Amino acid sequence: MLKFHDLLDNAKCYEQLRGLRWPEGICCPRCGSDHVTRQGRDETERDKQRYYCKGCQRRFGDLSLSVFSGHHQPLKIWMHCLYLLSLNLSNRQIAHEPDLNESDIYAMAQQLREAVVEKKPVVTLTGEVECDEVYVVAGHKGRPDAVKKSPARTA
């Protein structure tokens, strides 16, 4: 049986990740410097690029200090999990597709969800804000007259 992640190309996943992570050019995830040189490919994953930062003199890779770093699953499995999460599937349903343990999928899904929440911008309401069906009862305890609706006006 053909699985969805078999159709994903790991090289394309890394290419897409680089484009989303560094849209204006590669920069160091630690110091933010753009004085970066390529240092060849990773020995374990040929599609993963290694870099050297001239600003802080540290080495890093495509996944360094990202939600995907430090895990044994290939990037295409992470992308597949992310896609299935976007379909609002349960962890059990997600684990069935790439043939992984539910505990692995649970850890991956939890980490991806936390990363999404962490990047979510703070919502600030400005101007006139309207709410439908809001009942305000705080501060009126024991005083039902204060909560009573006024009679409708006639013109």
Order of helices and strands: HHEEEHHH
Strand order of the largest sheet: 1-2-3
Quaternary structure type: single chain
Shape: elongated
C-alpha Rg (nearest Å): 25 Å
Q: What's the N-to-C terminus distance? A: 72 Å
β-strand number: 3
Strand fraction equals 5-15%
- Number of distinct helices: 5
Helix content: 25-40%
Largest sheet: 3 strands, antiparallel
Poorly predicted residue ranges:
none
Count of domain modules: 1
Strand-pairing-aware structural class: alpha+beta
Rounded average pLDDT: 83
Explain this structure:
The chain has five helices and three strands. The chain is α+β, with helices and mostly antiparallel strands. It has one domain. It is elongated. It starts with a helix and ends in a 36-residue tail after the last helix. The model has no long low-confidence stretch (mean pLDDT 83).
